[in-house]
Amino acid sequence: MQKERVYIFDTTLRDGEQSPGASMNTEEKIKIAAQLERLGVDIIEAGFAAASPGDFDAIRRICEVVKKSTVCSLARAVERDIVKAGESLKDAANKRIHTFIATSPIHMEHKLKMTPDQVIERAVEAVKLAKSFTDDVEFSCEDAGRSEMPFLKEILDAVIEAGATTLNIPDTVGYRLPQELGEMIKELHEHVGDRAIISVHCHNDLGLAVANSLFSVMNGARQIECTINGLGERAGNAALEEIVMAMKTRSDVFGFVETGINTKEIYPTSRLVSAITGIEPQPNKAIVGKNAFAHESGIHQDGVLKCQETYEIMKAEDIGLEKNRIVLGKHSGRHAFKERLEELGFDLSQEDLNRAFERFKVLADKKKEIFDDDIRMLIANEITNI
Ligand code: KIV
Ligand code: ZN
């Protein structure tokens, strides 16, 4: 069966940078962009050209480095923004302008102070202007998650007519539940047909951004907007690593689609982004958290040492880690302790092993984690006849 492509649109450098405290300088953005290209991201949203001269410059410089992925520049549906976006992409090998305007009643009335007809007119003008810089134009209905379906269909028809090739449906405030967003995407996908690609952009205010993205794919979305480590405004955006690994791990469900991501670059990319932004994923964060492939309890350690799949649904190696991590602590058992001793080069008699294990348990009651040096000390101090 021919698999359909799900395009991965990474917005770490734009929406991700909107995380409080995550701003990056141009050199840092270039490093991340180059790594995103290695990761196999299809579209890199490099910034918001009109936001500042620094953002404009960073996009321009990223275009000099990135040659395979498409470089995208964000613009409000405003003439100045679109012209800036177009200029920032002048040297890109593959370029996209992403223009947006809000479509929910609350945003149109209170923020934009525009009527729905004025919003459509502005969206059409924006797409037409963007089209004069590149054929690849994405249009986003900001706050689509709280917009009305008839209006969404009307504005999408108008922007398709004006030349938009990707239609993004952002759940800007992370309000939708997976089932609901899935139904919404299904209806829009049926309406749009093959006139344009449907994209989703999910925020994580209720912790549902990844689930919402996955339900969208099941219902016809073929572009997912996401960020490394789930960085982004407020509670963040959908995490790229979680979406990609969910689709890979559950190929029984997602076997009809594929991405171009080289999953072995996931961990190096995550580390680079956290080193640059100073924002460390929580230890229990799925896929890239420090504990995501760590086992502490004796039962689990014994299980994975006998057969990895007993407690692991993915391989650490698949995301670019060397191997899973057996953490020695008070819940650890004899099997893991013995393995670690052997790795450290100790070959103890049964009697010494029993004594060492007893000492280890006493020490483990006092310390959260037992490191290799603790074991070396324990053997040197306590097991005198080796
Ligand atoms: O969350 C959002 O609606 C956005 C748009 C600019 C796509 O980030
Ligand atoms: Zn967003």
From TrEMBL:
<keyword id="KW-0479">Metal-binding</keyword>
<keyword id="KW-0963">Cytoplasm</keyword>
<keyword id="KW-0432">Leucine biosynthesis</keyword>
<dbReference type="GO" id="GO:0005737">
    <property type="term" value="C:cytoplasm"/>
</dbReference>
<feature type="binding site">
    <location>
        <position position="237"/>
    </location>
    <ligand>
        <name>Mn(2+)</name>
    </ligand>
</feature>
<comment type="pathway">
    <text>Amino-acid biosynthesis; L-leucine biosynthesis; L-leucine from 3-methyl-2-oxobutanoate: step 1/4.</text>
</comment>
<feature type="binding site">
    <location>
        <position position="203"/>
    </location>
    <ligand>
        <name>Mn(2+)</name>
    </ligand>
</feature>
<keyword id="KW-0100">Branched-chain amino acid biosynthesis</keyword>
<protein>
    <recommendedName>
        <fullName>2-isopropylmalate synthase</fullName>
        <ecNumber>2.3.3.13</ecNumber>
    </recommendedName>
</protein>
<dbReference type="GO" id="GO:0009098">
    <property type="term" value="P:L-leucine biosynthetic process"/>
</dbReference>
<feature type="domain" description="Pyruvate carboxyltransferase">
    <location>
        <begin position="6"/>
        <end position="267"/>
    </location>
</feature>
<keyword id="KW-0464">Manganese</keyword>
<keyword id="KW-0028">Amino-acid biosynthesis</keyword>
<dbReference type="GO" id="GO:0003985">
    <property type="term" value="F:acetyl-CoA C-acetyltransferase activity"/>
</dbReference>
<keyword id="KW-0808">Transferase</keyword>
<comment type="function">
    <text>Catalyzes the condensation of the acetyl group of acetyl-CoA with 3-methyl-2-oxobutanoate (2-ketoisovalerate) to form 3-carboxy-3-hydroxy-4-methylpentanoate (2-isopropylmalate).</text>
</comment>
<feature type="binding site">
    <location>
        <position position="15"/>
    </location>
    <ligand>
        <name>Mn(2+)</name>
    </ligand>
</feature>
<dbReference type="GO" id="GO:0003852">
    <property type="term" value="F:2-isopropylmalate synthase activity"/>
</dbReference>
<dbReference type="GO" id="GO:0030145">
    <property type="term" value="F:manganese ion binding"/>
</dbReference>
<feature type="binding site">
    <location>
        <position position="201"/>
    </location>
    <ligand>
        <name>Mn(2+)</name>
    </ligand>
</feature>
<comment type="subunit">
    <text>Homodimer.</text>
</comment>
<comment type="similarity">
    <text>Belongs to the alpha-IPM synthase/homocitrate synthase family. LeuA type 1 subfamily.</text>
</comment>
